[in-house]
User: Which sequence fits this backbone?
């Protein structure tokens, strides 16, 4: 950026420059956050200072109403939309013969373990004549490429909005007044239903590829009342009974997907969760 | 944490902020802290705060790692109802975090507490 000249300009230039600087400062917390693809904005919140959210950036929060989101994520149509998004990024997910792997995790430390597994599957070289293999999770088709629906979930900031302090919520360091307040229970249900719809994708992938999906679960130390055991596992059991998935549970956080001895196969032998 | 001469390292606010930002760089978990040691994460902080010393960056990483662990535990307890329900529960939990893990701003406590609710949701 070129430096502003300090002399020989009209006063209105200073005013405009001041406004621009204030806008940049207001946007800074969101601009330095993780890069997210752009998606349409819904209703903007109000900045705590009283002005409206001026940052029409791809990082700006969306204040979707919780009831609207609960209805949307409860609908099987959501799964079809998620599948279409996935196929847009990775057409092999909709190609006969592809072996698809879906990742699941719950509990401290297990997110990182799943990242390693996904990268290992997607990073391997295809063997000559072998079926292509792709690994996905609820965030996207790789650990880098995220579903637009997942990006929207993040931009809706359900948990930030479920934990207001003195009537305002903090998102990327900026205070907002939420036009559609969210309860903690709603935030849990929204993420739970989103995760359930993600699991449902296994049925569509199975139909498209002809191969049962391998569902890899890192849930060591996970708790019984969280999303995996309350939303995802019941869905995986249904899918398993249909023959759409083969479910594997990691024995440790360092389980290697190429070593069968590192895994327990079948939901009937699922690890017992930690009961709070 | 101490320097090579045994003197305790004074916290560097800029290094702390950089280490804190790292904890929130992955929305679903304190990712870098789950997959990397302090030594492995050190270059990421030094890159952002080149003026900070090696010891100051390590101190910042250790402090934020400890904060992340506290947030995990706190949010698990929050989910059991230990702090009650509603808006007052959030304030109580954030106050408790500030008391047990000093060295951060009120906004940082509120922000990482919300992040912790997502970390522990699954």
Assistant:
């Amino acid at each position: 950026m070129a430096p502003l000249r300090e002399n020989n300009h009209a006063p209105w230039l200073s005013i405009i420059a001041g406004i621009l600087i204030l806008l940049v400062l207001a946007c800074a917390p969101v601009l330095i956050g993780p890069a997210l693809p752009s998606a349409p904005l819904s209703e903007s919140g109000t900045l705590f200072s009283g002005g409206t959210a001026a940052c029409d950036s791809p990082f700006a929060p969306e204040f979707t109403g919780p009831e609207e989101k609960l209805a949307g994520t409860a609908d099987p149509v959501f799964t079809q939309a998620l599948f279409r998004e996935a196929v847009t990024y990775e057409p092999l997910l909709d190609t006969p013969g592809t072996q698809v792997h879906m990742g699941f995790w719950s509990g401290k430390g297990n997110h990182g373990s799943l990242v390693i597994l996904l990268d290992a599957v997607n990073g391997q070289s295809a063997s000559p004549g072998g079926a292509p293999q792709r690994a996905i999770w609820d965030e996207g088709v790789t650990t880098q490429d995220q579903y637009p629906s997942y990006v929207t979930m993040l931009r809706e900031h359900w948990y930030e909005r479920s934990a207001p302090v003195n009537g305002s919520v903090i998102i990327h360091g900026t205070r907002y007044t939420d036009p559609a307040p969210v309860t903690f229970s709603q935030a849990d249900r929204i993420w739970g239903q989103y995760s359930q719809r993600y699991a449902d994708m296994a049925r569509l992938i199975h139909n498209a590829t002809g191969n049962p999906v391998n569902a890899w679960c890192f849930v060591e130390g996970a708790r019984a009342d969280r999303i995996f055991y309350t939303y995802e596992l019941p869905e995986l059991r249904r899918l398993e009974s249909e023959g759409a998935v083969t479910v594997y549970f990691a024995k440790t956080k360092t389980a290697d997907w190429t070593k069968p001895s590192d895994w327990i196969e079948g939901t009937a032998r699922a690890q017992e969760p930690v009961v709070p | 944490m101490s320097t090579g001469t045994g003197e305790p390292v004074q916290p560097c606010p800029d290094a702390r902020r950089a280490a804190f930002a790292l904890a929130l760089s992955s929305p679903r978990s304190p990712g870098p802290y789950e997959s990397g040691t302090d030594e492995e994460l050190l270059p990421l902080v030094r890159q952002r705060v080149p003026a900070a010393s090696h010891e100051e960056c390590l101190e910042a990483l250790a402090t934020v790692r400890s904060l992340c662990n506290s947030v995990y535990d706190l949010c698990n307890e929050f989910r059991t109802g230990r702090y009650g329900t509603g808006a007052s529960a959030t304030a109580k939990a954030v106050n408790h975090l500030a008391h047990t893990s000093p060295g951060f701003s009120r906004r940082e406590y509120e922000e990482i507490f919300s992040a912790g609710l997502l970390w522990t949701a699954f």
Summary: The radius of gyration of chain A is 22 Å. Chain A has one domain: 37-269.
